[in-house]
Amino acid sequence: MRIERSALPDLAFGAAFLGSGGGGDPYYSLLLAEAAFERSDGFELVSLDDVADDALLAPCGWVGAPTVSVEKLPNGREAVDGLRRLETLMGRRIDAVLPIEIGGSNGLAPFIAAAEMGVPVVDCDGMGRAFPESQMAIFNIRGLSACPSVVTAACGALSVIETDDNNKHERIARALSVALGGIAHMVEYPLSGAQAKATAIPGSISTAIAIGKAVREARAAQGDPFEALAAAVEATGLYPHCRVLFDGKIVDLERETRGGFSVGKVTVEGLKSPGHMTIEFQNENLVAWHDGVLRAMVPDLITIMDSETADTITTERLKYGQRVKVVAAAAPAQLRDAVALSFVGPEAFGYETSFIPVEHLNPETRS
Amino acid sequence: MRIERSALPDLAFGAAFLGSGGGGDPYYSLLLAEAAFERSDGFELVSLDDVADDALLAPCGWVGAPTVSVEKLPNGREAVDGLRRLETLMGRRIDAVLPIEIGGSNGLAPFIAAAEMGVPVVDCDGMGRAFPESQMAIFNIRGLSACPSVVTAACGALSVIETDDNNKHERIARALSVALGGIAHMVEYPLSGAQAKATAIPGSISTAIAIGKAVREARAAQGDPFEALAAAVEATGLYPHCRVLFDGKIVDLERETRGGFSVGKVTVEGLKSPGHMTIEFQNENLVAWHDGVLRAMVPDLITIMDSETADTITTERLKYGQRVKVVAAAAPAQLRDAVALSFVGPEAFGYETSFIPVEHLNPETRS
User: Is the ipTM of this complex over 0.90?
Assistant: First the structure.
């Protein structure tokens, strides 16, 4: 399936929503993707079902603190340089790429490199949303190896990582991203088509485009973008529940760049909603409380959006005074089984609570 | 020249002295070297003059905080794994290895890998002493590239670094060493025989052995080991002045492992000397003051030694109450020119003083 240029803003919108506050602000990646589109033969998206079992697929994306990505621009060669090195390491050509996570920047980034390399992007991703750490990818949860992995940076530095310990791989990659200025590009979890079919979250890119398209059309028709968003998200099947949890104004924000992450807490005071909602984040929004009561938690999606435009406000763009709606959606089923929750559930982030699905926490709320 | 097993303790002694408090404690490396000697055909040392101009030489050594190396043991494969990967990257076999620095552990380490690989060690090194940071190597001072470089760790993780910025290479390697538990092995600055002849500090390994032998013989003859040490060091030609600066007891020690280094300050109260000597270190001893008066500074060598045995006490082994002599020696001439001083002089370490040679600071003192 050919991706039209007009679909890129839809993809940016949908990927930013699915990124749960992370995966990077889509702005620069959208500009880069549009420029790459112009100078290439276009972008090709293939269904996971149509990938050959013996194909070599390369997940990729940016690693580091998204706060840094706002100010430190890429050189534009990072992804291709990393993918080409992976080909050398694997001794064969890459047949297709895919986003390691579906997030604002990382959902778009693979198209830029893929177009230059003349390969398609596979309609899937490794997280079904964005997560702050590499070992939270479904590929790790299902036992695949992150290595060989290639980290590249705007300065031109290239590092190859090889270890059979995916947690160590994350630690090394994180240290590299910090040493390289806070953000770097990473190619990781190279896998076969058969492995991708058995593990990846299918359809996440086309889902993101569909979400973006629905909201764009609702805006054009003067409709409520949040109603359109919730309906579109629920219609995908991948994210079967979607709720506006809260409507208010940001009245407090703590955020720091620490250990290669953007970590903090944001408090929203109710305008149309009563009380306050507090959300903690590590690159991505992790847990939301309404006046101390849990309302949503990882791996379910929590996204803070501009009340008027319904644009996603990624964690690095949060500011005091913004009028926002907090939207939550049920994570893909693959992230909710007991094994997956041990990697991406609230306890994996240090919270002393077991996972409770967002639809159970909010039985009465409808968007 | 064949290195006899009996020469290994001499090398360990001399390299520890030349390491200026850094380069790692020789204890584990000596045990590993003796074991490697037993299971190999012996150790071969070749003169720099005898190396072919088109030979491929690989400098290597441990990077990280020596405080960590005391507790975190190597797996013994780090160096060979790194050197083998360098061969893959360069597309040819390594003809010989050399220590990136002549220090207690790093002066011995190359023999272990070289014996297993069946290649000789070249009688030279990249620093003429030990320095805390990779870009302080004479190879960087003379404009060679650190990359491709390979970092390996006890856990089996392997990372390749490629960048044309040697300062960035150091930052990346340091970040890796921290992520890998505080210490890692690094192969760096691969160079030709011709390049080594033009840049490396020649004869440092045989010099270390000669120093160790002289002190061992003095001890056996009930002579003063410090007199033998100073005479042997000055006799080498490489280090034309050697002085005992101070004789006392350690009465204060500040030391922390920070940013991949062991940094701190030690104060020695005079026993046979009046007043106090204070020495600041970053892995290696950097500057020595006697009651506030400068007595020695980088790149000149400052080594703290046990007053009785004349064994070097590396910075990570310093303890309150130790009876010590502080010995200083003139650095090799290659480290004292204006260009070299901009990389390894006191200002490169943040001191607001220009380099003054130890023999000018201590015209009256004789060991």
Answer: no
